[in-house]
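JOB MANIFEST
job_type = single_chain_structure
chain_count = 1
residues = 409
[input]
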Amino acid sequence: MHERTSTIPEVEDPKLREEVEVSAMAAPEDSNETSYLLPPNSKDWEEQGIPDFVYGQKELVLEGIQWPRTAPGLLDTPPRSRFDSALCSAWRQRMDLGLFRYRLGELQTQTLPGAVGLVAQLNVERGVQRRRPQNIRSVKQAFDPGQFNFNKVRPGEVLFRLLREPDRPGALRQEDILVMINVSPLERGHVLLVPEPTRGLPQRLLPGALRAGVEAVLLSSHPGFRVGFNSLGGSASVNHLHLHGYYLARRLPVEGAPSEPLDPGGRLHLLRALPAPGFLFYTGGPGPDLEALIGRVCRATDYLTDHEIAHNLFVTRGAPPGKTSPSSALTGVRVILWARKSSFGVKEGEAFNVALCELAGHLPVKTSRDFGSLTEAAALALIQDCLLPSAQAEEVQAALVAVIAQDEQ
């Protein structure tokens, strides 16, 4: 933990400057409140170490999160949770200090005309500047320390360490999760959640990582903070375990899409709605229900990985399973899992690459021409071209139902 000092980093962004000054004035010099901002001299960044963001179950926001009639601005939505304040102020400072590959301004955003409600955003710089994907040929590929990994990030890219307080005296502390900037951001606040990077874990979903992702969604009071995971072959570009988290101030189709149960206990549901059919897991909040969900999801992703089936996962606040609608209350957390065709590398010439956010209905478009001409039908065709053939999809569905049923007995 690091004490806040009275030194305020020099930043150009007037909005951020004001925010930093207010934070500094709010805490006395001898305060124990942790600062997530870098000192002004870059030579001191490594010496400062990584601050801890310690949270407990009482900070997980379960009720009262709703979309207003007009979409809120990312940083202008009161009240922000402690997590939102820490993440957004630190992220914006790193942007001002030039630690990203490009400076992300306001992105042109439109909801494509049609029944689905696809949200398209023009992000030219990400299409041009993002790191080239690693040479990956298997969903089960081992970690290679010689390739780029998150032990090689520059000082200052890590915002904080996410630490969960033990639920009871004597309970084991959960693994450390480093929250670091994605240097090629999709949207403002785009971060990576990386579990103990020194362990050299390959990009295969583990329960501790998923728990941190779901709880990060619950730590935010913004309805548009989402978390996701891309498997190898599912457009993951780095083979080192990580999840994505980012803010998008727009509703997405998967939040309230209707579903049907696939098993008598209602533990696994199917979203048939566009943009892509997926498997739905739902929890009303932390506790035994969340732990059970984490176990089910990871058993499902283990099955897919072991059978060389690429997949993507998306975590969002949403409505309970059933006959829901876009106006449904965000009463819990939806975890949506898609099995899909393997895709290694970047497909040149496509309007967008299909990964976790595209399957959920958020389309980061690479060029102005495509952004101006993209239709709902063309976007859906591109997404559905990445899905499994119907016969294989039915086999996977039956297998996952069996996996969930067997492990729940």
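[summary]
Residues 230 and 312 are 5 Å apart (CA to CA).
The chain has one domain: 52-65+78-406.
exit_status = 0
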